[in-house]
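Backbone-to-sequence.
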C-alpha cells in the first residue's frame, strides 16, 4: 500500500501521556488509514470513508 502523502494526526481522544493513542490519515482519496502511535511500523488499518464515518459516529454516541 502506498502511504506516501498520508498526513497523520493524533486522535483528539488520545491523552498527552503517550499511552493508548491512535493516528488517523484521512487525506488520501477513497481511504482512511489508522495506526498505533506507539508502533507506527507495526501495521496500518485501512477503511473506506463511509465505514470510518459510521465507526466514528457510533463511538461518539456511546463514549
Amino acid at each position: 500500500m502506498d502511504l506516501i502523502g498520508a498526513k497523520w494526526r493524533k486522535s483528539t481522544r488520545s491523552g498527552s501521556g503517550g499511552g493508548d493513542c491512535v493516528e488517523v490519515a484521512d487525506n488520501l482519496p477513497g481511504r482512511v488509514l489508522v495506526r498505533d502511535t506507539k508502533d507506527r511500523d507495526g501495521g496500518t488499518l485501512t477503511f473506506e470513508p463511509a465505514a470510518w464515518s459510521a465507526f466514528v459516529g457510533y463511538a461518539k454516541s456511546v463514549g
